[in-house]
Design a protein that fits this description.
The protein is mostly beta strands. The protein has 1 helix and 8 strands. It has one domain: YaeB-like (Elongation Factor Tu (Ef-tu), domain 3), CATH 2.40.30. A hairpin with a 2-residue loop joins strand 6 and strand 7. The site of S-adenosylmethionine has 16 residues, from strand 6.
């Protein structure tokens, strides 16, 4: 395999997990900055042409994992791989953010759900290719329907 190393860190307004919106209808509109380390800055060439980015990052403040999770959006248990639980065998987070601006090694982004200081593993352009009518939202659609009745 390989040994992951951070390419940068997130500067986030969230210092504690409790501050991050969760559950059905939660909106992630907070702005933050992804600071890329000098060794990797060249890798940002042309990134500003993309409106949205995938950010892969580390749940660095979680210990251990559980193969079953009860997400804040439901009161039922689901397999960890059917959720976005932080407590997973490989503690890797994936967030789609809007790129607001790039200033040299800093990416100002909107839509973060990471804690301040979170290590970033990778960044890729977000290119959505799945038509809406083909998307199925699994247990989440059912939980949303129950919440609305
Ligand atoms: C439900 S996870 C989803 C993260 C990402 N969007 C994903 O799908 O992989 C988001 C939660 O992870 C937790 N979190 C954020 N940053 C973290 C970090 N650095 N270490 C551990 N937990 C973190 C917070 O509780 C936050 O509400």
């Amino acid at each position: 395999m390989f040994t992951p190393r951070p390419i940068g860190f997130v500067r986030s307004p969230y210092k504690r997990a409790a501050e991050i919106p969760k559950g059905i209808g939660a909106k992630h509109t907070a702005e933050g900055v992804i600071e890329i380390l000098p060794d990797f800055q060249t890798g940002l060439k042309d990134v500003e042409g993309f409106s949205h980015l995938f950010v892969l990052w580390v749940f660095d403040r979680v210990e251990g994992f559980s193969l079953l999770a009860t997400p804040p959006s439901d009161n039922r248990q689901h397999g960890v791989f059917a959720t976005r639980s932080p407590r997973r065998p490989n503690p890797i987070g994936l967030t789609v953010v809007e790129l607001v601006a790039r200033l040299e090694s800093q990416l100002r982004v909107r839509g973060i759900d990471m804690l301040d200081g979170t290590p970033v593993l990778d960044i890729k352009p977000y290119l959505s290719s799945v038509p809406n009518q083909l998307l199925r939202r699994g247990w989440l659609a059912e939980a949303e329907a129950r919440a609305n009745t």
